[in-house]
Amino acid sequence: MSAVWCLAIVSAVTAAEPTIVIERCSLFDPESGKMLPERTIVIRGTQIVRVSGADEVGDIPADATRIDGRGKFALPGLIDAHVHVVHVLDFAHVTGDEVLPLYLAAGVTSIRSTGDELVAATLVARFAAAHPESSPRVFTCSPLLDADPPIHRDVGHAITDAAKVPALFDELTRWNVTTVKIYAGTSRPVGRAIIDEGHRRGLFVTAHLGRYSAQDAVADGVDGLEHIWSVFNYVIPPETTKEPGHRGRLDLSNPICESLVAELAKRKIHVDPTLAVFRNMILLPDVPEVRDHPDNALAPQRLRDFWPVYLKRTGCPQGGPLEDRRREFAKFQELTGKLYRAGVPLLVGTDSPEPQVPPGFSLHQELEMLVESGLPPAAALSAATLTNATVLGEKERLGSVSAGKVADLVLLTANPLDDIRNTRRIELVIHSGQVCRPDVLLKRVPKQ
User: Is the pLDDT of residue 128 over 70?
Assistant: First the structure.
């Protein structure tokens, strides 16, 4: 009798799950890079249960919420592979939960915290999981594993003895991190120990390089590199470094560059360029079209007020006269395109909420800059969805609109393959089966 009763309860819960049907939309497939016409997407509860062609729809429950998809374009939920949910925000007296709606409003349904104070980041992730109607899914990372003292003491963790790395990982795995991040002060022996231990534990190991060179990190088996300068800084011939403005004049066909790019492609090392932070914070924050970008106005005033303070604190803009800085950024984009053409897998991340890198909407800027760098729109979108999901270990659940996956998608009113800026033309976002409206989400973000 108890088994029958339990079965009845399960059946009742299943029957009560709401059904959403998006009818006859075009659907972006990140594996083929194509926009598939006339697709009907059936969502039940938090899952996609069916994706079918116009002639294969099947039965739709009478009480289903039906959305007319004609003339609309569905994308998998976007993923930002490089954000901070504590760092920078803490200095501005802003908490992570206050900016989470900005991500969903921009169609970003998952984010990877890439170096934060771990207890606070975990609390933000738990808050997000409890509020899928207003928050993206948050994946956590280790603190920045660095020298002693760490460069960023608020989010860094000093580790200078390779023998102590296993004990550190015992602690990290208790927090269920998905990524481990090597930071700029780390030596090669410690970096190699982190990579080896990370792989033994099945974790993705990425690096923001400094002391540890790209050539050494790649040889040691690192999985990812954060920021385009984790490649760029290691392909500069030493004899050129004394020339004024040499970074903006670098010949990217030099043998050092060709060798490193080939090795990155051969080993399938994932590079996350984060062009948004280089343009908006490090190199060109004083350029009017960057400083006054309308996306910036969407962030809380406390965060916007802090951005100029942090720019000054970090010595930005860096790189000398404006024209030298423009040329350097152009070289960053040229190198990004070179990596793509060589077959290096690229991620899409922003380093939000660094100065003038607003949560959520800076991902659209990143996509635009990737396309300017030479990626076709389809390649940029595939990177921001399926590739990002893959490095999170979530390829089976996220990254494409497919039966059996979590119901994360963005419905657009224009085709982003025609113009990547059309990713901004969002009609609605579905996150874990919850229908989210951008205008409603933006009202949840504090103005002050």
Answer: yes
